[in-house]
Structure formats: structure tokens, C-alpha cells
Design brief:
Blueprint: E1 16-19, E2 32-36, E3 39-44, E4 47-53, E5 66-69, E6 72-76, E7 78-79, E8 85-90, E9 100-103, E10 129-130, E11 143-149, E12 155-156, E13 164-165, E14 168-174, E15 180-186, E16 193-194, E17 217-218, H1 226-233, E18 238-242, H2 245-248, H3 251-254, H4 260-278, E19 284-287, E20 292-295, H5 296-299, E21 300-302, H6 306-309, E22 313-323, H7 325-338, E23 348-354, E24 368-374, H8 386-392, E25 402-407, H9 431-435, H10 456-474, E26 490-491, E27 501-506, E28 512-516, E29 525-529, E30 532-536, E31 580-585, E32 590-595, E33 608-615, E34 625-631, E35 636-640, H11 641-644, E36 666-671, E37 683-690, E38 695-705, E39 719-723, E40 725-728, E41 734-742, E42 750-756, E43 768-773, E44 779-786, E45 797-808, E46 811-812, E47 817-823, H12 843-850, E48 853-855, E49 857-858, E50 862-863, E51 867-872, E52 880-885, E53 888-894, E54 901-906, E55 914-922, E56 928-936
Parallel strand pairs: 10-26, 15-18, 15-22, 22-23, 23-24, 24-25, 39-46, 40-47, 48-56, 50-56
Antiparallel strand pairs: 1-9, 2-3, 3-4, 4-8, 5-6, 5-9, 7-8, 11-14, 11-21, 12-13, 14-18, 16-17, 19-20, 25-27, 28-38, 29-32, 30-31, 31-38, 32-37, 33-36, 33-38, 34-35, 34-37, 39-41, 41-44, 42-43, 42-45, 45-47, 49-51, 51-54, 52-53, 52-55, 55-56
Helix pairs in contact: 1-10, 4-7
Length: 939
């Protein structure tokens, strides 16, 4: 039976266009069905490959380029080795009639804003209370610094094409004795090399060979965080900042997830290196580039020698900071660590993603988290790191603080000095000025008289204060810094004169009582009068999700860059995002009431009531809501939200640019000490009453809480992975299956979202599905609608990407991205066809069978120069089975309709005698049967 994968669309804006010429109908025999001066559409197994040649290489940023046909975005593209071609595969037959292919690789045209232009909302510095303690203050420890370099190809990189990368970084060690908490910094995606010499065609290392004389050098992005590293080290924390240039040079070309797990594993490899150094063991790596073994003593240069590291590093108390794509990388590091047995885990207690991407919607359990979001980010313009907090906060049974820190006026690059103009000689930029289309909005235009932008020096000061403060709090227990991250309206004193920084926080589970999360409908939440309230999720409209959703959209007319809670993720574009309650009204009549159930009415032990709130897109500048708290005697306390936190009912600043006036939840806190006259042991209701004639707000997470950090509880997490599979293309619509698999049986439900990529409109069917593993269940089949043809293709097989994202109750595994490979079964126009993969059976049964080895039946002894009959069962009907003796292929045979295969194996006369393994492997199922044999000499 023939099969074909259907794939899912992503949304972005098209900017660089290549005009079209003649196109061919999909029925033509020529595999190239449409083309233009710099683009082509070619028929391949399972669909069409769309390719666009570029006149220059795209900039190396956190962003990922997409391709669009005739203005309709198809999805993220893969970059060629030289960066001059973008391509993707789709099964959408309409691309055969393409007249234009475009990309946003060099920026996008500015879409319309969300209404008439308005003046920027005021964001005055100096209005927030300054915390008494200053986390940026240098401590009393002397700091010893040393760089280490084990070579450019010292470690294998995870899930990135089998390449190797550098083990390079810098250590900042405080003086003294005993173990210090360890903080690891990981930079983001940036240009890897610079210099006047010719670039290495392989992209990494910077030189094509060790003896090259070309003037090409690595860009030391890992040295861009010297100030926070020294601030932490001077206060007793060991800091290691690591280089990830090999990943940056290859992630868009070779990595299914754009390098998140490769970065995460690099962090874990670094921790393993530090563990061995701390234990006084020999540390060394083989650098494949120079073909030499490098010891730690060889690698170190500066103040430190290997003996200085012995007994100095507390690897049970670790914090990770990752910038940009490094932000998702450190999240991946923590989840990869959680998937290990507890005895092999590192004590990753805290993670700080700085201006991060969240392409994979990775959920993060059991880890104190603070995500820093720069309002004027011109690279990660939709502040997608908000998903890290939103997705994780209710996904696990854990007890940790999660915070989102919004820094007004900050851009993406200036947290790193090596990326800042004037501080390094190459590849620097103000990302807002460089990448924001029509970026002259005075809110973020650094040259405007009314700009809210921070200077580069001011932004670095913010980075120092909040990086140092977070890790000193989460690792060192310095609780004087808790108000910077618990949602309090305070600011670090070193930043108070010039910065405006707001924080929302989800307190640890043991330190809060959820009154209403507003994530689903509840009889305890009811609107009356002219007020309406509905649970919404995700965004629709241009740039929004493309498949039907179970809930109404939270927004449909606002650019995705202005909607951090709901912007679609690159590898999870149709996965529901951030459900919350949308309260709207057209007059002052009506309200929203939230009843506290019996058993949850005693708030006497809590410091405050908190809720997250933001004005909706219908609000031009500001609205207002009165919040009231009522006890069992009918006594009521009330206050306007505008007096508690005006930002929660005021649109954020912007003068019309579509990326600004962002809708981001703000924290509204009511100290229980202020509830004069109320019986706090018997609180019955919280009410939200409109205080303007019309308007709307979003509400999330109404809680009673005590600010706290919480703590990591070591536990091994199950992982959700995708079992890659192969199918025949098919001659028309059909169905294939992929398997979502759980690494171990657990006693609670686990959910994940499985997406299959490649179709612009899902016209062969829905290609995203929520899957739930019942307690004890380890495999769930996911049906994929298919769409085949009867024409030859240009390639023997085509692989479509499948992802498992936004996991709840487990974590994404290191095989969270898999493939559905489609075999061209109508012949190929060049080369040889791939072996037949047969008719797919029960995909979960196939997955289970592939994990164990079956046995082969032999008719007699195996003798060199003679034949032997070999048989096995358990294969797909019709699949090609290859028989090998050791590394020598003996040939192929086909399984019958019952999955049995028989083969007359001709043993080569020159086959080595002695013990060997005879193996039979299915081309489609991957099932393997084998037998240990003794090869006898020829008679």
C-alpha cells in the first residue's frame, strides 16, 4: 500500500521575492514542475521540494528563515551548506502552480499595526522602589580567570548531523576553599567566524585545515558576559562561560530542532568535564581537527591550573544562563539532565533564559526559572520566551518559582559585549535598528528624542544586576533578592535611575493556593450583566495558527510579535498557547465573580492575593477594573487596578509599529494586610467590575500566595519521543501512522502535542494532535493523513519532520524530533530507487519489535563459498529485508503477506572464518533478526 506524509504550515512574513516564469502542471513527467530565475519546485517522494537561491548568505541571528509561495508561508526552510539556498518539502499540490517564491531571511516587510497611531505610553524610570540590597555590587572575593580550549572538534554534538564541536570557554573562580555554586553561561546564535581570509566551505572550524594561513578567527561570543560573571564570582560563585560556535555554524543546516538539544548536551558535556576536574581526575579530549589529545593542563591558559579546580565546584548546586538560542539550549540541558537516572543527574537548580527563543515549546520541570524579555528585541521580536513560563507553570507536580522579567527599552544584543557595536570589530548590531521593519518608532528607536531605549552600558548593567541577583537567590539562598523576582514592584538599585522593569511570578506550589487559573471554564467563575467572559487561547488571523482550535482565539488582529503569550512557535505552530480568561464589556453594567469553594476560603496565612492581567487589543491607551474581595459576612474591600498596578490596564508603549504595544500580562497584587475589616479566614469571593464604559482585559492565575523560591526535588522524568518510520508514497489519499512513545511507565497521565510538517494548509487533513498517555501506557499511534501520486520523483525518499512538544507530566526526549520518511514508489528520474518499505502495520507494535532482536532460522552450517537457507518472521508485508554477514551484504528478499521472509544466502568464498553475526533487517519496520554463526572454511 502506498503512503505519503502530510505536513504542517508555519507563519511568517515574506520579504525577498524571486518573480516567476512558466510553471508546469503536476501531471507532467518532468519532476521540475515550476521555476523562476532563482527558484524551483520539484516533485519528490511524498510531495514537492521548493528551493530558493539567494544572492547572499542570510545573517546569523536567532531567527529562522521561512519560505512562501505566492505570498502564502509554507514553513521554516533548511539552509544549504554554503547558506546560499533555502529549501523545504511540502505536500501541498498548489505549489506546482507557483509564480513566486519568497523568504523573510533578510527581514520582513512591515505589516499594519493594530489601529491608529498613539503616543508611547510613559515608562518613567525612577518611579519604582529600589531594593535595599544591590546584587550588582562586587563582593569581597578575588576572582581568578582562565580560558580553556580543547580544540575545535573535541566533542560529538547531539542531533546535528554527526559533527563535532569545540570544548572552549572561560572559568571565573572565586578565591577561598571549599566548593562554590556553579553558574554556566551559554551564548546564542551569532556569526561564528570573522576575518579577511577565505571562509571554510564546511562552515566550522574557521580554518579549512590546521595548517591554513587564512586570516579567519572564531568570534568569542562566550566572552561577552564578563561583567555578570565577575559580579557573581566576586560574591563566591564559580562561573563558566562556554563557546558554541560549531553549533551556530551548522544548526539551521543540520539540526531538526535548530540546535536546542545540541546546545543542551554541550552544557552537560561541560559539566562532566568540570566534574572530573573537581574530583581531581584526568581530563582530556581528542581534537579531531588537529588529530591530537588535549589535556586540561594543555587547554588552560590564565590564572588557573588543574589543581586549582579540585574540590572547588559544587555540582549539586548549578545555575544555567542561556542567551537567545542559548536560552532554549539551557532549558534543553535541564530536561536532558532530568531524563537521566537520579544518581547521574547534576544539581541544576536554576535556569535563566535571556531573550530566549522557544521554537520547541520545551516545558521545564522542577527548576527555579526567570525568563528575561527585552521589550525592544529586534531579533526575537515576539518575546517567545514567555512560553517557557506559561507552558511549564501548571505542567508538573513541582515546587519552584517561575518568573517573567520584562525589561523596557532593552534590545537583544546589548546584553553581550561581543555583539555590541563599538566593543568588538565584527558582526555587531543594534538588532532593533537592523531587523525591525520601519523601526523608527520612537519607543524603540534609539535616536528618537522620546525613546525608551536603554544605552548599551545601561542594558549591560541590567544584565549584571538581574543575572547576579537571580543566581545569588536561587543557588545561594540570598533571599534579600527575592522581591526582584516574586512579582513585587521593586527594582535593583543600580538600575533604578534609568530602567523600568516589571515582573510576573508563579509562586511555588507549596507557597500558593490557586483560586482560579482561568485556563478552563468553571462554575465558580461567572460573568453577569453586560460583561462577557470566555476562556481563549492562541492567536488567529495573519501569522496565527492555521488549524482548528478547541477554544476561541485570544487575538486575531494583532501582529504575532506583539503577542508573546500566543505567538506560534516554529516547531509547534498549531499547538494551543496560553489559555486564559478574556473579560470584555461595552458598558459599566456587569462584573466577573470568582467564588472560593469550601476548604479554600482561609487566606489568613497568605501575604497577598495576586492575579495577572493585561488590557486587550480593543483598548486604545488604558482601561480600568475595580477588584473587590468579600468575606462571609458580606464585608467588602475594593480598589481600582489602576491604583494597584496601572500597567495591568494600560497598553504598553508604541507609536504604531506592529511589533510594539505588546499585550503582556502584568502582576496585580493585593496585600492581605490591606484588607481591613475582612475575615481572612472566610473569604468568599473576588470580583472584577469594569470601571470604564467599554474595554477588555485578560486574566490569568488568581492566587493566594506567599513569595518564595521553592526547591528542586531530584526525580527522573519520563521522556516523550517520536519513533521515526518509513512508508510508501501511495497513489492517492490515505493514512500513515507515527508513534509517540514514552520512555518508561508512569503512574500519571502524560500529554504532548505531535506535529507533522510540510503542508501549507493541511489540505490532506489535520497534522497536529494532542496525545495522552494513560498511566502505564508507553506508545500512542498518531494518524497522519496522506496524499500520494502516480508520477516519478526526483529523489528516492523524502523525510518529513515530526515533533513532540509542550509536554506535560514528562519532558521532551532527545528523540523528540523524528521523521516520517516517504519512499518514491513510482520510480525516480535519476539514480536508483530506495528498497521497498512495505505496508505499515501497527506502528506501536513495530516500535516495540524494533527494540528487540529476533532470531534467524538456518537450514544448515554457514560455509564460505556455499549457500544456506535463512528465514525469519516479524516483518512488514512486502518490505525488503537485507541480509548481512558481519559488514558484508549478502542480498535482499521480500517478506510475504504474513511477514515471513526466506532467503538463500550465498556466503562469499573469501568470507573470514570463525564467529560472525548473520543479520536480517527490514527496510521499513527496522525490525532485525540475527543469529550468531561460525563460518566454516570452504570445502
Amino acid at each position: 500500500m502506498k503512503r505519503l506524509a502530510t505536513l504542517l504550515a508555519l507563519a511568517c512574513c515574506a520579504g525577498l521575492a524571486a518573480p516567476g516564469v512558466a510553471s508546469a502542471a503536476p501531471g507532467d513527467a518532468d519532476p521540475e514542475v515550476a521555476s523562476g530565475p532563482s527558484w524551483s519546485v520539484t516533485r519528490v517522494a511524498g510531495g514537492f521540494e521548493v528551493s530558493l537561491e539567494l544572492d547572499r548568505t542570510p545573517p546569523v541571528t536567532a531567527s529562522a528563515p521561512t519560505l512562501a509561495v505566492d505570498g502564502r508561508v509554507l514553513g521554516p526552510a533548511t539552509e544549504s551548506a554554503d547558506g546560499r539556498t533555502l529549501s523545504l518539502v511540502t505536500n501541498d499540490p498548489s505549489v506546482a502552480d507557483a509564480t513566486e517564491v519568497t523568504t523573510d531571511a533578510f527581514g520582513s516587510e512591515a505589516p499594519a499595526g493594530d489601529g491608529e497611531q498613539v503616543a508611547p505610553a510613559p515608562t518613567p524610570a525612577g518611579d519604582q522602589e529600589a531594593l535595599a540590597a544591590d546584587p550588582a555590587r562586587r563582593g569581597d572575593h578575588e576572582v581568578y580567570e582562565a580560558e580553556y580550549d580543547f580544540g575545535d572538534q573535541a566533542v560529538p554534538l547531539l542531533n546535528i548531523g554527526g559533527i563535532r564541536g569545540e570544548m572552549t570557554g572561560k572559568i571565573y573562580l572565586p578565591d577561598g576553599r571549599g566548593e562554590a555554586p556553579v553558574v554556566v553561561f551559554l551564548h546564542g546564535r551569532h556569526t561564528s567566524c570573522y576575518g579577511s581570509g577565505a571562509a571554510n566551505p564546511a562552515r566550522w572550524p574557521c580554518l579549512a585545515s590546521p595548517d591554513s594561513t587564512e586570516q579567519r578567527f572564531p568570534i568569542p561570543s562566550h566572552l561577552g558576559y564578563e561583567d555578570p560573571a565577575r559580579a557573581l564570582a566576586s560574591n563566591g560563585y564559580a562561573v563558566v562561560s562556554i563557546s558554541a560556535n560549531a553549533i551556530n555554524a551548522n544548526d539551521n543546516q543540520l539540526s531538526a530542532d535548530h540546535g536546542a538539544q545540541a546546545r543542551g548536551q554541550l552544557v552537560l558535556d561541560t559539566l562532566r568535564m568540570l566534574e572530573r576536574a573537581n574530583d581531581g581526575q584526568a581530563v582530556g579530549f581528542h581534537d579531531a581537527f588537529t588529530d591530537r589529545d588535549v589535556s586540561l593542563d594543555d587547554a588552560l591558559s590564565g590564572d588557573l591550573r588543574p589543581a586549582d579546580l579540585v574540590g572547588r565546584l559544587d555540582l549539586d548546586d548549578i545555575g544555567l544562563m542561556g542567551h537567545s538560542r542559548g536560552g532554549e539550549g539551557v532549558v534543553a540541558a535541564a530536561t536532558l539532565n532530568d531524563a537521566r537516572p537520579v544518581a547521574r543527574q547534576y544539581g541544576i537548580d536554576a535556569v535563566l533564559p535571556l531573550a530566549p527563543v522557544a521554537y520547541d515549546r520545551i516545558t521545564l520541570p522542577n527548576t527555579v526559572t526567570a525568563t528575561i524579555l527585552p521589550y525592544c528585541d529586534g531579533d526575537v521580536e515576539n518575546l517567545m520566551g514567555q512560553h517557557i513560563v506559561d507552558d511549564s507553570r501548571h505542567a508538573f507536580d513541582d515546587d519552584v518559582l517561575r518568573s517573567a522579567v520584562l525589561v523596557m527599552g532593552a534590545n537583544h544584543n546589548y546584553f553581550n559585549t561581543v555583539w555590541t557595536p563599538g566593543l568588538f570589530p565584527a558582526a555587531t548590531a543594534d538588532d532593533w535598528a537592523s531587523f525591525a521593519p520601519a523601526g523608527d518608532d520612537p519607543t524603540c528607536d534609539a535616536a528618537a528624542a522620546t525613546t525608551t531605549r536603554l544605552t548599551a552600558a545601561e542594558q549591560r548593567e541590567v544584565g549584571v544586576a538581574y543575572l547576579a541577583g537571580f543566581f545569588r537567590l536561587a543557588l545561594g539562598g540570598e533571599e534579600e533578592f527575592l522581591p526582584l523576582f516574586d512579582g513585587s514592584d521593586v527594582i535593583a538599585p543600580s538600575t533604578a535611575p534609568f530602567a523600568t522593569i516589571t515582573v510576573t511570578a508563579n509562586q511555588p506550589a507549596r507557597s500558593r493556593m490557586d483560586i482560579a487559573t482561568f485556563e478552563r471554564t468553571s462554575t465558580a467563575v461567572r460573568a453577569s450583566g453586560d460583561a462577557t467572559a470566555e476562556v481563549c487561547a492562541s492567536m488567529g488571523g495573519q501569522g496565527g495558527v492555521t488549524l482548528p482550535q478547541p477554544r476561541p482565539f485570544c487575538a486575531t488582529t494583532v501582529d504575532q510579535a506583539a503577542l508573546p503569550h500566543w505567538s506560534p512557535a516554529l516547531w509547534a505552530p498549531n499547538v494551543p498557547a496560553s489559555p486564559m480568561l478574556h473579560l470584555s464589556w461595552t458598558s459599566g453594567e456587569g462584573d466577573l465573580r470568582v467564588s472560593l469553594p469550601r476548604g479554600r476560603r482561609d487566606l489568613g496565612d497568605y501575604e497577598r492575593i495576586a492575579v495577572r492581567m493585561a488590557a486587550d487589543a480593543s483598548v486604545a491607551t488604558a482601561t480600568d477594573v475595580t477588584v473587590s474581595v468579600t468575606d462571609g459576612d458580606g464585608e467588602t474591600w475594593s480598589a481600582p487596578v489602576s491604583e494597584l498596578n496601572a500597567d495591568a490596564v494600560t497598553r504598553l508603549p508604541g507609536a504604531g509599529h506592529p511589533w510594539l504595544r505588546k499585550i503582556i500580562l502584568q502582576q496585580v497584587s493585593i496585600p492581605t494586610a490591606a484588607l481591613d475589616g475582612l475575615d481572612l479566614t472566610d473569604v468568599r469571593e473576588v470580583r472584577f467590575t469594569p470601571a470604564t464604559d467599554s474595554g477588555g482585559v485578560y486574566l490569568s492565575d488568581l492566587t493566594a500566595e506567599n513569595p518564595a523560591v521553592g526547591a528542586r526535588r531530584p526525580a527522573r522524568q519520563a521522556t516523550v519521543d517520536i519513533a521515526s518510520t518509513r512508508v510508501e508514497e501511495g497513489s492517492g489519499p490515505g493514512t500513515a501512522q507515527v508513534a509517540a512513545v514514552l520512555s518508561q511507565r508512569v503512574g500519571h497521565p502524560v500529554t504532548a502535542y505531535v506535529s507533522v510538517f510540510g503542508s501549507a494548509q493541511g489540505r490532506a487533513g489535520v497534522t497536529m494532535r494532542e496525545v495522552t498517555f494513560a498511566p502505564g501506557q508507553v506508545c500512542v499511534p498518531v494518524s497522519v493523513p496522506t496524499y500520494g501520486d502516480t508520477l516519478p520523483g526526483a529523489t528516492a525518499t523524502t523525510s518529513f519532520k515530526v515533533s513532540a512538544t509542550n509536554v506535560s507530566g514528562a519532558v521532551m526526549g532527545d528523540a523528540g524530533f523524528g521523521t516520517l520518511t516517504v519512499r518514491e514508489d513510482d520510480g525516480v528520474t535519476a539514480g536508483s530507487p530506495a528498497p521497498e518499505v512495505g505496508e505499515q502495520g501497527d506502528v506501536c507494535a513495530e516500535y516495540a519489535a524494533a527494540g528487540r532482536t529476533g532470531g534467524l532460522r538456518l537450514s544448515g552450517p554457514v560455509t564460505a563459498g556455499s549457500t544456506v537457507e535463512v528465514g525469519a518472521r516479524g516483518y512488514r508485508a512486502g518490505e525488503s529485508v537485507e541480509f548481512t554477514l558481519g559488514a558484508t551484504s549478502l542480498g535482499r528478499s521480500f517478506a510475504d503477506d504474513r511477514g515471513a521472509v526466506a532467503f538463500e544466502a550465498a556466503v562469499p568464498a573469501g568470507a573470514p572464518t570463525g564467529e560472525a553475526t548473520l543479520t536480517a533487517t527490514g527496510a521499513g519496520s527496522g525490525y532485525t533478526a540475527e543469529a550468531r554463526v561460525r563460518v566454516r572454511p570452504a570445502r
